[in-house]
Amino acid sequence: MDGVILTSILLFWLFLVLSFVNFYSYSKNKETLKVHINEVAMTQQLMKVKKKSTLDRFIIFLSRYADDFSALGERINFYSESPDVEVLLIKAGNPYGLSVARFQGFKIVCVILGFIIGTFLFFLGFPFANVFFVTLPFIGFFIPIFLVRGKAKKRQELLRRDLPDFLDTVSISLQAGSGLDGAIKEVISYYIGPIQEEFSRFIQEIELGVPREKAYTEMLNRNDNVDFQNVIKSLIQGSRLGVPVATTFRNQANEMRRISLEQVKEKAAKASPKVTLITSFIIAPLIMLMILGLIILNMIYGEDSIFKLFSN
């Protein structure tokens, strides 16, 4: 009987200690999960906080009606085949929440809008209303294509512009002893734009268990900027060979700045002949015409005008 009581007491204290240990482990995991959720929520909030212009709000409003015409838009796919549109939307960062089907329908919405505007101008009797009535629907068809192409080009340019500063900052964090993922997570919180969107998505994929090399490959597929692809390829090589990337980042940032400076000098050199051409063939003749006009007006209406000489 005494052995049973002693065993019960020992089991009681054992289970009590185990309960405290498990409760402590639960508390630590709960705090870690809260920190992770806050970081993810803050990253998503930074990605969503963007001021929308009146044009953006108008396009989002029109895109609501695009789903009804997506089937028709996929059949009329002149310069807008679905595989090409999908690649273009990915490079543009899926602007206005457009999917491939919604983009195809958005073309038809713009055609209908162009037809309505052309009809309105025709009944109001505007000059060249007949031309607008015919051309505006065609222009409306191509507006979404050029709009998304422009968004994709602008996004890649913004990615290239912010990349040197981003690499320098990450390089400093790496030299201070921080890990690559931790340095990227810390730095992207101070950026807004494509560079922040891409690396935020990369960090989220890594935390969800996506293989690192696959996450890098997805970043390459989403962007066609040469400098950005070189950075990602260096990260892939570093993950395979174990090469430190801090020095590589700093060298790549310096090289990008040097190339940017050379491009600015090249654009300035190309602008000089254009300015000379405009000055020679537009500004100078206009100045001569103004001087000649003043001379003619003085000869006609001045004190020593021709009419006064003949009248005397």
TrEMBL record:
Pfam families for this protein: T2SSF
Subcellular locations according to the entry: Cell membrane
Keywords: Cell membrane, Membrane, Transmembrane, Transmembrane helix
Record keyword Metal-binding present: no
Keyword Transmembrane: yes
Residue stretches spanning the membrane: 6-24, 108-126, 132-150, 275-301
GO cellular component: plasma membrane
Annotated membrane topology: Multi-pass membrane protein
All residue ranges annotated as the Type II secretion system protein GspF domain in the record: 166-292
Protein known as: Type II secretion system F family protein
